[in-house]
Amino acid sequence: MTYTTQISDQIVRITLTGDMTGFEDSQSLLKAVDSIIKQGILLCVADISQIRYMNSSGINTLTTLLTKFRTRGGEMVLTKPSEQVQKLLIITKLNAIFTIVEDHAAAVVKLKSE
Questions:
Q1: What's this model's pTM, rounded to 2 decimal places?
Q2: Which part of the chain is the STAS domain (predicted)?
Q3: Contacts of 15 (CB under 8 A, 6+ apart)
Q4: CA 111 to CA 17: how far, in whole Å?
Q5: What residues make up the domain containing 24?
Q6: Rounded to 5 degrees, what are φ and ψ at 93?
Q7: Residue 33 belongs to a domain with what CATH number?
Q8: 3-state DSSP assignment of residue 82
């Protein structure tokens, strides 16, 4: 998995690409998010449209990210999961925990209305 971050208007956009399967990949992302949160950025759009495959490590990473933002009074929204990832979120019932929207613009609207 690779990722990029972009901060705009007090919202961080994290674009994730590849397979979310490993602990090592996640550690770099989690450290980057800790640094972003320390800057006072508490709203996040996680673009997971380019995630091809996700296992339990990937699910753990997403829930850890969500927890990091919510415990500090923030929020995270997922955008455009692939069909396979969407099915995984439904099977694990995490679709009830995460806010999932179709695109970045909808995510920004959702975050600003919170």
A1: 0.93
A2: 23-111
A3: 3, 4, 5, 6, 47, 50
A4: 22
A5: 2-113
A6: 65, 15
A7: 3.30.750.24
A8: coil
